[in-house]
TrEMBL record:
Residues 1-19 form the signal peptide. Keywords: Cell membrane, Lipoprotein, Membrane, Palmitate, Signal. InterPro entries: Bact_solute-bd_prot1, SBP. PROSITE patterns: PROKAR_LIPOPROTEIN (PS51257). This is Extracellular solute-binding protein. The keyword tRNA-binding does not apply. Pfam families: SBP_bac_1. PANTHER family: ARABINOSE-BINDING PROTEIN-RELATED (PTHR43649), POLYGALACTURONAN_RHAMNOGALACTURONAN-BINDING PROTEIN YTCQ (PTHR43649:SF33).
């Protein structure tokens, strides 16, 4: 009997000891279970759902949608399908809202987020990302910050998918034709202009331009400067930054034989890739927007580091990243976040980097090492020159900025044709403010 009683006491002690090893009730095993439960992603309804995905620009083709989004979704979340909507007649974002067809997800540049915020389509997705265990530490912090700059509270309006980079693309054949050494990495604008002077000439009835910077709007991205103050919605063109841009653009386009038929025409890409009469083109990522076809048609090209201002060495245009944002009105926010998590996964990001030469939003160095690895026409090209520069911080843009761009173009043309610089900027300042006052609605 005593032995039996001792055995029972021994078993009881063992049970208590085991319980003690678990941390003691509510503060031990129970709390861990509760924490594990909290760390789990939310249970998402797997009823088939079609998400409306609005692409506000053309940097994502239908082929990209299928290879980078649809295929990955089918593997992980087969109950999610997408309806692609692009801007057109009857499908502007304002028209979609008015028709009760507000998208679930918006794909846009960080430069265009101001407009979508004005339409009250954006909200902080940080809680949603946390609930779905999206590891934000994987992202390049500079790109992640570009999604937060519209909010004084640091609210995150979406997840970056990829970022544009800038490079100095050049036509090897034109350099060889005129016996000019190829551009080197680390050159300043002044040095590139000197090279351009040797290449800008007329030969056998053809005028060759040594350098075309596209537009003053593109050049302004490097400082960076805006046309309108986003806080006051008043003109910001009468500034030292714009004086620098106007002066540099005039220095470039005043080179004999280097003046385009029309200034700020957005045609420099075509002149370089199709007409092949521009020797150097400082531009953003051309690797997946026509350069392969241009190479097939005879363009012999390479790329060097983007030219720098002396006061800002190794800096190219400001952060220009493409973003997926879940709209505030979506009824399927959890499914939308699942799509975002797929799009920003290592698998999809690496596939995008290798097969489309897009610069990944992730800070994983492998993404840069394997940029364009599956694109045969990039073999042997100086792609690592791209990474010798970093982007300038992205500014906040006023919704009016792009709407008054033509006023800045006109002002520059007047300056180029002889008007005093300060007068041209002062008059442009007045015209921009007048336009804003007349078009506030």
């Amino acid at each position: 009997m005593l032995k039996r009683k001792a055995l029972l006491m021994s078993l009881t002690a063992m049970v208590l000891a085991i319980a003690g090893c678990g941390g003691g009730g509510a503060t031990g095993t129970g709390s861990e279970a509760k924490q594990n439960e909290m760390n789990k992603a939310p249970v998402v309804d797997t009823t088939p759902v079609k998400l409306k995905l609005y692409f506000s620009n053309g940097s994502f083709s239908d082929q990209d949608v299928n290879s980078l989004i649809v295929e990955a979704l089918n593997k992980k979340y087969p109950y999610i399908s997408i309806e692609v909507i692009r801007p057109g007649k009857g499908t502007t974002i304002e028209e979609l809202i008015a028709a009760g067809m507000t998208p679930d997800i918006i794909y846009a540049s960080n430069l265009d987020l101001t407009g979508f915020k004005t339409l009250d389509l954006l909200e902080d997705i940080t809680p949603l990302a946390k609930a779905h265990q999206v590891d934000l530490s994987r992202f390049d912090p500079v790109l992640l910050d570009s999604v937060k700059i519209l909010s004084e509270k640091g609210e995150m309006y979406g997840l970056p998918f990829f970022a544009h980079f800038s490079g100095l693309f050049y036509n090897i054949d034109l350099f060889d034709k005129f016996g000019v050494p190829y551009p080197k990495d680390g050159m300043t604008w002044d040095e590139v202009i000197e090279v351009a002077k040797k290449l800008s000439r007329s030969d056998n009835g053809v005028t060759y331009k040594g350098l075309d910077p596209d537009t003053i709007a593109r050049m302004a991205m490097q400082l960076p400067v805006t046309l309108v103050d986003p806080k006051t919605n008043r003109s910001a063109i009468d500034s030292d930054g714009w004086r620098n841009i106007f002066t540099l653009a005039k220095d470039i386009w005043s080179i004999p034989n280097n003046t385009p038929d029309k200034l700020n025409s957005y045609q420099s890409r075509n002149w370089f890739m199709k007409d092949r009469n521009v020797a150097m083109l400082p531009y953003n990522n051309l690797l997946n927007i026509g350069l392969e076809d241009a190479a097939k048609n005879g363009l012999n090209w390479d790329v060097a580091q983007f030219p720098s201002f002396k006061e800002k060495p190794n800096t190219y245009a400001h952060v220009d990243t493409q973003i997926f944002a879940v709209t505030k009105t979506s009824k399927y926010k959890n499914q939308a976040m699942q799509l975002l998590s797929v799009a920003t996964s290592d698998e999809v990001q690496l596939k995008s980097a290798r097969s489309t030469a897009r610069l990944s939003a992730l800070k994983n160095p492998e993404m840069k090492k394997q940029l364009g690895a599956d694109m045969a026409f990039l073999k042997g090209k100086n792609l690592q020159s791209i990474f010798k520069s970093s982007p300038a911080p992205a500014p906040v843009y006023s919704p009016y900025d792009s709407l008054v761009r033509n006023i800045s173009f006109q002002s520059f043309e007047e300056y180029f044709n002889g008007k005093d610089l300060n007068t041209a900027l002062k008059e442009a300042n007045e015209k921009i403010n007048k336009w804003i006052d007349s078009n506030k609605k």
